[in-house]
Specification:
single chain, 2 domains, 353 residues, Hypothetical protein af1432, alpha/beta, 16 helices, Rossmann fold
Length: 353
């Protein structure tokens, strides 16, 4: 549709208490090719008609009974603050102060009474062209925003697919199940909320936690799948999975992957500095790593493994308390125990078959 056609199809609203003025304007506008013209002599109807018609331009008299032109402009601005249509003031006033007041109120242009037909057509056309360009700009911006949102969702979906595939790859290499990954991630989410993380931080942690043991991909099967106790040399090789995981996830600009790297690197660190791989202590360990450490150990204790039975809930809680201040951040242990009803619901929803 061309510019001329768009302008001819524009919706015009005339608000003037003098019917003769409306009739004259309608005659001039129809002669110029405009067909979608609406009008009222009662300014009290102006807002309702504006909201119903959504006109492209309002031709508005200033001096009217009930609600004057300034009042109508104010009503429209309050009802449609971001996109209200341009107002073309109809006035016999030549006083500069009145014009300034109208401009300050939101008017875009003036038509002096008695009307000059050439001037009416020119001023209305100019305002409609600006209105059309404005609408096109708004529509283009909305399209761009939608496109960006769709691309962002696509990237996020791709990112999550990669994370889950890597998580599954790690599961193939050890004895952990898919339900362990789900439970542990949900425990992290509950604990993150209790620790005061923002909603977005909680979400990122929930999505990043499944990557905690991705480094086991690099551990030889003879060690990772060994049914018995590891030798000291084998244990040293096993511990390198934290650094392998951090290396696999390094160099990303994604906050999600950055957190996943921090978790992979630090979830085996201990509060007292006796953990690995770097012997970090206390709050030098990222909060994400400290949270995953609690959730991972709790689920390991309460889950069946080929080499052990599942611990009873109270025995697992006692073990967490025993490790408070040594293995675990003591504040997180307190918070975790306060969330036991939520923790137990997760255990029930994602129990092992």
């Amino acid at each position: 549709m061309g510019l001329q056609t768009d302008i001819s199809n524009a919706t015009l609203l005339i608000v003037d208490d003098q019917a003769s003025n409306i009739q004259l304007l309608q005659m001039v506008l129809r002669g110029a090719g405009y067909t979608n013209i609406h009008s009222t002599t009662d300014s009290r109807q102006a807002l309702e008609m504006y909201l119903r018609l959504r006109p492209d331009i309002v031709l508005l008299d200033l001096q009217m009974p009930h609600v004057d032109g300034f009042g109508v402009i104010d009503q429209i601005k309050q009802a449609d603050p971001d996109h209200f249509a341009p107002v073309l003031v109809l006035t016999a006033e030549v006083d500069t102060a009145v014009r300034y007041r109208a401009l300050d109120a939101g008017a875009r242009d003036f038509l002096l009474k008695p009307f000059d037909r050439v001037e009416v057509r020119a001023r209305i056309r100019n305002l409609l062209e600006m209105r059309l360009l404005f609408r096109q700009t708004v529509a283009h911006a909305a399209t761009l925003e939608q496109t960006v949102a769709e691309r962002t969702l696509e990237l996020r979906a791709t990112q999550m697919e990669i994370i889950h595939r890597l998580g599954h790859a790690a599961e193939y290499k050890d004895n952990e199940t898919g339900n362990h990954i789900i439970r542990m991630s949900l425990y992290c989410h509950v604990l993150a909320r209790a620790a005061g993380l923002t909603d977005s931080e909680q979400e990122v942690l929930l999505r990043a936690a499944p990557m905690h043991d991705v480094g086991t991909i690099g551990i030889p099967d003879r060690i990772l799948c060994k049914p018995g106790k590891l030798t000291p040399d084998e244990w040293e090789i096993m511990k390198t999975h934290a650094e392998i995981g951090a290396d696999l996830l390094s160099g990303s600009r994604s906050p999600l992957i950055q957190m996943a790297q921090a978790i992979a690197w630090t979830h085996h660190e201990k509060w007292d500095g006796s953990g690995y791989p770097r012997g970090l202590r206390g709050q030098d360990i990222p909060l994400s790593g400290r949270i995953v450490a609690v959730a991972d150990v709790f689920d390991a204790l309460t889950s069946v493994r080929p080499y052990k039975a599942a611990w009873p809930l109270q025995a697992a809680i006692d073990e967490l308390h025993a490790g408070s201040g040594r293995h675990f951040d003591p504040q997180l242990i307190t918070l975790f125990c306060e969330q036991l009803p939520d923790i137990q619901r997760i255990r029930a929803d994602y129990h092992e078959d």
